[in-house]
Every structure is written in structure tokens, then in C-alpha cells.
Amino acid sequence: MTLLKQQDHSVRLGACLAAAVLAVPLTARAAPTHYWSVQGGENRLSHWPVRVNFGGPAADGDLRLTRGAELGLAWGVQEDDARYELEYQHGRFRVTDAFIGGISNPSNANGHYDALTANALRRLALVDALSLYGGVGIGVGHIAFPHIALASGCQCLGAAAGTGFAWQARTGIEYKLSPSGAAFVQASWLNLAGASSHGAASVSYPRRGFGVFGVGYRGQY
Hints:
By secondary structure, the chain is mainly beta. 10% of the residues lie in helices and 67% in strands. The chain has one domain (2-24, 33-220): Porin (Beta Barrel), CATH 2.40.160.
């Protein structure tokens, strides 16, 4: 019940962020400029809860993860200090251990995720070429967990995947290198739907959020 409440709270929070995106006023008067951006960094994944149902009894567990690479591309339009963009992100992670029913099962399997979001951001000029920015995004995300072999020989922790509503919150700082280009550093909180599979046993991963840090370049065209 607690898990369902947490997922419901996460979806409600995402819905509130969606409302915030739709409520951003279009007050800019300057001619809009188009831009693209590319960024690379790493996610801050460290673990992900899992539940295995054997057709009756269920066992709760936890996957231990290592941080993985994150890449992102975006295309957008800027009107004064308002930005509206479409962004694609891809990230990877590695499962190093699976604790099921309190038993450790060392692993070396890889998983990945993808997210496509529409973002609304605001920029705040500081001094000279330096500025801050922040905003939120909503869209769709996909995550895939690998098959994990258990020490007991049970093939009950099969590969699982899920697609659903995704949202993110972001803040960053950028430095203008030229009239048409800027370098930036940013931190995001990305929230993805969980995953499930049905094989020898039913496996489910709940909705979860995690941090993503990246550096990149933004260019106008």
C-alpha cells in the first residue's frame, strides 16, 4: 500500500509540474531565436527496489546500481528569457548486486532508459555573459532492466521493461562564449515509470526518480 501511495504522489507531483509548464506565460516581445543543444554527463542511480511474485508469496528486494553515462539532445525556441524545447535523453546503468529476500546475488548486467520531454525554462541574467536557468518538463519515458541470474539458479528475475509518463525538474548555469553559443552545467531530477515482466515469476519495479548531472553546449541557428 505504501508503494502505491508513493507512486500516486509521484504522478500527482508530475501533474502539478505539467500544469506549471502549461501556465508559463508567453510575454516575450523580442523576435524568437531557435537553438539546439547537446549534453553529456552521468546519472546518480544507486539502487532500485524490486518485487518478485512467485504466484502467491512475494519477495521484496533491491538492485544495487552503479552510475552510468547520460546523453541528451534538444531543439527549442527562445523568446527573451523564456525557452521552450523538445529534449531526448538516453542513459545507462549497471546492476552490481540483487538482494532478494535478504540474499545477495552478485551481478554484472546492464540496463538503460530513454526519455522524450517537452521542457519550459526561464533564464535569469547575472553578470555579463553569465546566467542561470531552470524549469520543468513532461513527456514519456522508457526503462529496461536486464535478466539477472540468481545464485540459487532460479530464473525468476527476468528482464523487465516499462513505458509511461515521465517528468523532470532542472536548474543550470551557462556562460555565453559567443553571440550564438554558450556552454552550460546543469542538474536535473528525472522521474520515470517503473517496469514489469511476467515469466517464471512476476517482476515489478516501482516508479522512481534520480539525479542527472551534465555539461554541454547550446548553439543558435
